[in-house]
Amino acid sequence: MSAAIPIPNPATVELPNLDEQQAELAALVTRLTPQEGIHPSAIPALTVIRANTPSVPTPSVYEPSLCIVVQGRKRAVLGDDVYYYDALNYLTVSVTLPAIGHVLEATSEKPYLCLRLELDARMIGELLLQVGRSAVPPSTDRGLYVARTSPQLLDAVLRLTRLLEQPRDAAILAPLVLREIHYRVLTGELGHRLRELCVVDSQVNRVARAIDLLRKRFTESLRIEDLAAAAHMSESSLHHRFKAVTAMSPMQFQKHLRLHEARRLMLTEGLEAAAAAHRVGYESPSQFSREYRRLFGAPPRREIETVRGGGLQPA
């Protein structure tokens, strides 16, 4: 009678150590990014980023995502809060947020490498039905947070990145690995922050509704009562919770969205400052110029010329 073959317990199976995983992931991402910049990938939810030098602090709009630094170090600033993340820590963005990004460590020999994965709220909701919604206290944190990268999460991210070089397998396997990554984050040390997004009556979910309305109608003159109605909150509660999550008032948030869109229009469509200002809802070009300079550090024309001349990098 043949001896029974022992079946390994998944809980006791050892994963490669973090150093080995990071080294392989860095080599993969380096091959995938022969040049600096932000590179879409064959997996629609995954973007690959490379910078060969540190960047200046640059305002940008962070979308709900998981940002895993493969190599180098970066800082994000939201209001008075500063977040550092590197190859040992990942950044999670739970709602759309205007923030300031700054690559701190990068050289041509050892560039800053990052993977940005869009969070799928529907997938989070489906997973919650399976793993259950543990009771958590209402969040008072911002919509950004940093957590330690576990070997299990990094292993899943590594397998997803490998699929970029295996397009035939990616179509079938990528959705499975994406689901695993969401599961690892959801059951990780700060997963309860994501759970709040899918709980209909949570404070974060309600703020997210107001943010969604601002994103869709940022060129319009919205009233705070319109946002409060969309969020099913009182005006005072919305103002308080909105600032707690985003570090700014709803109207400041709208202003940032307008300025970022105007900057995009000038950079990608070649619009003049006055035309871009009008397109995003400004009636006064001088007011637009003042607020643009306050956010981006220079008047519109000069700042755009600097970016086109290569003086700034996307952070």
Automatic annotation (TrEMBL):
<dbReference type="GO" id="GO:0043565">
    <property type="term" value="F:sequence-specific DNA binding"/>
</dbReference>
<dbReference type="Pfam" id="PF06719">
    <property type="entry name" value="AraC_N"/>
</dbReference>
<feature type="domain" description="HTH araC/xylS-type">
    <location>
        <begin position="208"/>
        <end position="306"/>
    </location>
</feature>
<protein>
    <submittedName>
        <fullName>Transcriptional regulator</fullName>
    </submittedName>
</protein>
<keyword id="KW-0804">Transcription</keyword>
<dbReference type="InterPro" id="IPR018060">
    <property type="entry name" value="HTH_AraC"/>
</dbReference>
<dbReference type="GO" id="GO:0003700">
    <property type="term" value="F:DNA-binding transcription factor activity"/>
</dbReference>
<dbReference type="InterPro" id="IPR009057">
    <property type="entry name" value="Homeodomain-like_sf"/>
</dbReference>
<keyword id="KW-0805">Transcription regulation</keyword>
<dbReference type="Pfam" id="PF12833">
    <property type="entry name" value="HTH_18"/>
</dbReference>
<dbReference type="InterPro" id="IPR009594">
    <property type="entry name" value="Tscrpt_reg_HTH_AraC_N"/>
</dbReference>
